[in-house]
Amino acid sequence: MTTIAPKMPKSWRTETKPHKFCPGCGHGLVLKALGEAIDELGIQDRVVFGCDIGCSLLSWDFFNVDSVQTHHGRTTPVVTGVKRARPDRICIAYMGDGGGYAIGAQHLVNAASRNEKITAILVNNCNYGMTGGQMAPTTLPQMKTETTPYGRDPEETGYPTQGPEMVAAITRENAYVARGTIANVRQLKGYLKKALQNQIDGNGFSFVEALSSCPTNWSMNAKETWAFVEKTMPEYFKIGELKAPAKKEEKIDV
Amino acid sequence: MTEKPINGEKRVFMTGNEVVAWAALAAEADIMYGYPITPQNEIMHYWTRLAPKYGRKFLQTEDEISAGFTTCGGVLSGKRAFTATSGPGNILMQESMTMAEMMRIPTVLVVQQRGGPSTATVIYSQQEVTMTCYGGNGEGLRIVYSTGSHQELFDYTIKAFNIAWKYRFPTFVLGDGYQAKMRESLYIYDPAEKGISMLKTVPFVGLEGMPGVDRDPSHLRNTYNTEEELYDVVTNLVAEYEKIAPEVIEYQTFDADDAEILIIAHGIVTRAAQAAVKALRSQGIKAGHFRPITIRPFPAGEARAVAAKAKKLLVVESAQGQFQRLVKDALYGLTVPMEGYFKPGQGITSEEIVEEVKKGL
Ligand SMILES: Cc1ncc(C[n+]2csc(CCOP(=O)(O)OP(=O)(O)O)c2C)c(N)n1
Ligand code: SF4
Ligand SMILES: [Mg+2]
User: Fold this and answer.
1) What total of structural domains would you count in chain A?
2) Is the pTM above the cut of 0.90?
3) CATH superfamily of domain region B9-194
4) Would A187 be classed as within a structural domain?
5) Which of A188, B113, B231, B324 could pair with A33 as two cysteines, CB 3.0-4.6 Å apart?
């Protein structure tokens, strides 16, 4: 019997596959969508990819693109530093929800406010995956985690962070902001392409949150995991584009 | 090509912060990332006024965590990038400087020490010695120049860029609030005029060519999976650091050869120590002075050689023994008695040192 290797994006580094995420993890799907987006835009030789600490760190050698892994929450400033010094590069910051909305929230907010011309991709898996499933800013109400063993009580710990909504609120019209999901990889790829195109066009900050799975820490089987991603998460986190700049030629000067 | 910021050599009368900005310009620094904190602010103020005239850049970040990490990003892009800070900002920059140590990122950081702990004063101290040399979770694989005058601020800021890029260890210029804010005469110059050429910088990411086809991708990480893997990485880093240390260390001695009482001081306190030696010698007291310019790596052998000949050692600093710990470490095993004259967060005059020496006679 021969096994047929799944089709991989051209920009993936085959030498480092199969990748190291847990079975059923959404990170791989987000990175597949990203790989295809890079391929279709033909930017592989111009991308500088930065990854956070969190399960995103497992992507440090994932692509055939120049990559730098940094500290928990600090991917946004590292990638900002690269972009400011080398505006001709396409700079991507890849992080988790803990990295982007908790420890690195000030960086995300200020990069967005300053309209840094980078593309930030944030994987929302409702918990801190790498450290063993603690509460994240995105943990849903009543959801059990290692640090909310009786379920997240919004009275105690507030409501889940609405990241793209926040970024959309603090950016101007030249930003691109969307929330996609691994339950619809085609759509997610479309969002990522637009987010990268927005950087290529030199417009401004681009941000895509991807709803993603963490079956290991959710302690869910495949069916439950998929139901959680497809049904439960979008009830709270609405899928769609929150901000999409008009194409350059469509912009009207006033 | 844009004009050189300084042609030839010029005598000027400037504050130290202005000096640092001019030095960075002269050293062909491409970009500064920074966050406001006293007494460092005017480095940014002068840089933001001067830099655009010479095609250089600036980014004001949201905090010093970001200033440090954006500096790492700038350097990774192959640019001569730097930042400057003080006190609580220095604390926040320790995180990014550990990444620079681990990944051999040649960042340049100018520290103008202020009083500590906490917010303390915005004036002056030598209390950031331990943090600047050994801050962070690691082995302190950095190069730290402790300057004592405006001329040195200029010389060593230029040198810091070349040393950082030559050896690829994060490099610090350790000044203080007095040096930052005082005005003093000095010569500023085009490095080429002194036969100094700025080393070519190279990018670590964003290289030319199609990765995976024309070349391997550059994959940089600071996380390792096993104890053995990390042990190898750190052992190699330490070995390289120790190998270059003898080439990097710098120090000065003043009447140290026949000194019976050896004053050991660094940074701006060296000036009081030098004046005290003169005064004591004129009174027939055989005083001398040893001053490390690099406090990390520390010129341990050189310090030992002169300290061993003295009858008594006096460590003088504007901190509660932080510098003395480095000295003790270097002189371990010597039996020459050592005393400390410590004034955390306060300046020290030559008269005080003279008095302290005479008290102990
Ligand atoms: C300064 C610092 N604090 C804490 C940690 C420990 N830590 C590593 S990964 C992580 C959480 C990761 O969660 P998230 O960002 O949501 O990514 P995920 O693993 O879920 O993809 C934490 C807290 C760290 N590495 N550095
Ligand atoms: S712990 Fe969760 S997020 Fe991390 S690799 Fe496993 S499934 Fe993915
Ligand atoms: Mg997470």
Assistant:
1) 1
2) yes
3) Thiamin diphosphate (ThDP)-binding fold, Pyr/PP domains (3.40.50.970)
4) yes
5) A188
CB under 8 Å to B233, separation ≥6 — which residues? Answer: B102, B224
ipTM of the complex: 0.92
Pocket of ligand 2 contains residue A25 by CB under 6 Å? yes
- The CATH number given to whatever domain includes residue A31 is 3.40.50.970
- Tell me the mean pLDDT in the region A60-84: 98
Type of residue numbered B162:
N
**Is residue B1 predicted with pLDDT exceeding 70?**
no
The rounded distance, in Å, linking the Cα atoms of A176 and A188 is 13
Confirm whether A4 is domain-assigned: no
Atom of ligand 1 at shortest range from CA of A130: 19
Hey, what are B189's tokens?
Answer: 């110059």
| Cβ contacts of A38 on chain B, cutoff 8 Å | none
- DSSP, collapsed to helix, strand or coil, labels residue B83 as strand
Q: State the pLDDT at residue B361.
A: 86
Kindly tell me if the per-residue pLDDT of B2 is higher than 70. no
- On the question of a common fold for B9-194 and B253-359, the answer reads yes
Residue ranges of domains in chain B: 9-194, 253-359
A2 in any annotated domain: no
Interface of A with B in 104-143 (CB under 8 A): 106-107, 109-110
Query: How far is residue B251's CA from residue A85's CA, in Å, rounded to a whole number?
Result: 35
pLDDT of A254 reads 45
Across the interface, whether the CB atoms of B218 and A66 are under 8 A apart is answered yes
Residue A8 inside a domain? The answer is: no
Residues A66, B211: C-beta atoms closer than 8 Å: yes
Report residue B338 as tokens: 């050592």
The encoded tokens of residue B138 equal 């690691």
Give the dihedral sign, CA B135/B140/B141/B147. positive
Q: What is the DSSP string of A16-29?
A: G-S--SPTT-SHHH
